[in-house]
Each structure stands twice: as structure tokens, then as C-alpha cells.
Amino acid sequence: MNQTVSGALSGTLTVMPSKSASHRAVLLASLASGETVLEPLQLSQDINATLSCVQALGLTRGVVTMSSDVPGFVRTRIMGKAKSEGNRSTRVLDCGESGSTLRFMIPLALDGRGPVRLTGRGRLMQRPLEIYEEIFRRQGLFWQLRGNDLTIEGQLNPGIYSLPGDISSQFITGLLLALPQLPGNSAIEITTPLESRGYVELTQKVQAIYGIHTEWQNNGQQLYIPGRQQPRSPGTVHVEGDWSHAAFYLTAGAIAGNGITLYGLDMNSAQGDKIILHFLQEMGARIITDGNTVSVFPSELHGITADVSQCPDLVPILAVAMTAARGESRITGAARLRLKESDRLRAMSAALQALRAICYEEDDGLMIRGGLTLIGGSVDGCNDHRVVMAMAVASALARSPVTISDAEAVAKSAPAFWDEFVHLGGIIHAG
């Protein structure tokens, strides 16, 4: 589906619940004794994939979705601790296009109850899994990847797990979710500097809500994980606002319009993408914070160099901010983005160039010379939700409307995005 859009964004919005925190809260509620109510949730394709997988794996006694006090979101009641013994039939887990779902579920599926087949769509099963394969084959566990199907079987063992730090933190979180319940103590050793540390610390923060304790040792290069820990339901869990999603609107407020105010953000969040405030302020944006409310206003921005190794999901919208900023900007530390839903460095370079921005790929990032008025035209969304949303925001910089392909891809993480876009004054053109 193509979407032709234009217009600067202004106004107020309650930010959707964090997708990263939602994945973790769903999984821990499923593992926990008792019933947990998660509020709010937004049922994106990725969160639905995780909800489906915890049921298919047999972790829960049931999932019930109810209306929420916040329009557009839901309350979800999860009845946890359903694990039974001796299920030899193959359980099938459809992970959709969710890398988090796939990498979080793999260690949990190694529960000794028979084979599990994990499947996915798009580029999901092409994304790196070798780290897991190497670890689990050393334990004598079964691993077979054929096309879009991964079949695994066996019982994960406690022990010491060594992983490089320059891989997706999803591998570390997957182990961190599974290891506390095993009968012995474990440790995750990080053999190189850890990228995306904030996502690991977010996992720990959510685990603590359910009574699971882990701790950093050796100057932050090893996670010690005591065994025999059973998650316990705290009753109701509030899911904090999503800084990754907020970044699109914070940038929109900084580049055009009359300013945007966002509600529901946790200023003490462990989400790494909260650093968008730092990047925008460094570029010259005027930002006001008041409790969990953030307002940003149009400003004369200037170029910066941004290392995104701890916050790679920000690259598409950060590239748009840099396109609006005068002078030269650089994004570095982003090589892993070539293996997302699209090659995001190539996708953003091509999309911005199609609007006559000056943007070039580099080995691990982008170089952008900003401050120019863009033309309208057509850009390829590359079936990538973050590319599509970034280019919708970029339309405010263009002289005429921008047509974006694969506009339906936003449903992967933010199914309400186009409604939010219109709510904030964006224009969706007919035809």
C-alpha cells in the first residue's frame, strides 16, 4: 500500500507503550506464578507474535484482552505458569517478523519437553542466529535451520555463556529470561564492549518487578544469574511509554510546525532510545520536560556526529533530523542495521536521496549534509516500519507531497501511527 503524505506535525499525544518493555512483560507474566494484568499494551504485529508464541509453547493458562482506560490501547490478563511435563509433539511458534520474539523464545523453548519449530516471515530467519547455534550445539542440543523454519530440541543447562558485545542484545536478553529458572547458577560473559546495554538493563528492570534478581560483575562485563528463581506476579504491571516511537514525534516537533507535547514517557527509563533527547538538544532543539511530559519546539538545528551503537533503532528518524540541520552530520556505529527488516542504512540513504537530500552510505553509518528544502516524490519504504515512519515525518521538509510505499509496514510496531499522524495535523492525500 502506498501512502501520500505532507504537512508539519503539531499538538499533543499520549505515547504508545514501549514495545521492548511489552515483550519482556508478556514473557515474564507467562512464566510467573499467578495472574498478571499488563496495562497499557498496544497490539502491534510484534506483540501479537509474542502473545501467540507464549501460548503455543504452553507457558500460559490463558490470555484475555480487555479494553483500557486509555483509548487505542488494551489491558491484557495473562495467567502464567502453565508448564507441564512430557509434551513430545512438535510445538509450532510463529514469530512473524519479530526479531525480539524469535531470539527471546529460542532459549525458553529449550525446556526438555520435545521439539519446537520456530517460523517467521520476510527477512526474519535470515537475521543472524549463529551465536545461539554455536552455544547450543556445544551443549548437545538439536538445531536445524531450513529456509524459514528452525527446529530445536533439548534442555538448556545452567553454566557460563560467553557472547561478544557487538551483537544484538536480544541474544543476551533471551538467555537472561531463561537462565534464572534453571536448577543451577549461570553467568553471561561479554567478551567485547557491550552495545545496546540499555536493552539488557531494561530486561533486568522488568525482571525485578517479577522478583528476579541478576547483577553485573567484573566492571559490567559479566552478568551473574542465580538459579532456582521463579517469577512471581506483582498483580498489575504498568508498561512505560515507548522512547523509540516518541523519537519520531520529538523530531517532528523540532523540524517544523508549532511544537509537540508527548505524555506518558518515563524520564528514568532504561530504554536506550531515550538518548534522542540528548541528540536533539545537541543539535540545538528547544526541549522542555515536566515530570513524564516532554515538549519540543521548532528550532534552527545544526549538524552533529552521533554514535548509535547503543541506540540503533534511532537511525531512520535521526537521519531525518540531520537532513533538517544545517551543515554536515554523521551517524556511526550502525553496521548492524544492514540486517534489520531492511538494510536500513541503504534504505534511508536511497529514500532521502529520492527527495534530493544529500545523504551517503558509509561502512557503519551515514553522512548527511542538511539544511536544504526537499522536493516531493516517491520513496521506497522497503517494508520497514521505521523507514516508513521516518519518511512520513520527513514529508514536512518537502515542497510537495511524498508518496511512501509499504505504508502498511507500520503495523509491525505501531498500528495507530497513521491515525496519530493525522491527529497531529499530518495530511494523507487521497488516491
Describe the structure.
The protein has 2 domains: 202 residues, UDP-n-acetylglucosamine1-carboxyvinyl-transferase, Chain (Alpha-beta prism); 212 residues, Alpha-beta prism (UDP-n-acetylglucosamine1-carboxyvinyl-transferase, Chain). It is 30% helix and 25% strand. The protein has a 4-stranded mixed beta sheet with strand order 22-23-1-24. Strands 2-15-17-16 form a 4-stranded mixed beta sheet. Strands 4-5-3-14 form a 4-stranded mixed beta sheet, with helices on one face. Helix 3 links the parallel strand 6 and strand 7. Helix 7 runs parallel beside helix 9. The protein is globular, with a radius of gyration of 21 Å.
* Spatial order of the strands forming the largest sheet: 22-23-1-24
* Rg for CA atoms: 21 Å
Largest sheet: 4 strands, mixed
CATH topology of the largest domain: UDP-n-acetylglucosamine1-carboxyvinyl-transferase, Chain
CATH homologous superfamily grouping of the largest domain: Enolpyruvate transferase domain
CATH class of the largest domain: Alpha Beta
Cα distance spanning the termini: 11 Å
- What does the oligomeric state look like here? single chain
- Overall shape: it is globular
Quickly give the structural class.
alpha/beta
Count the DSSP helices.
12
Topology, number of strands? 24
| Unreliable spans | none
Number of domains: 2
Query: Strand content of the residues, in percent?
Result: 15-25%
**Averaged pLDDT, please?**
95
CATH architectural group of the largest domain: Alpha-beta prism
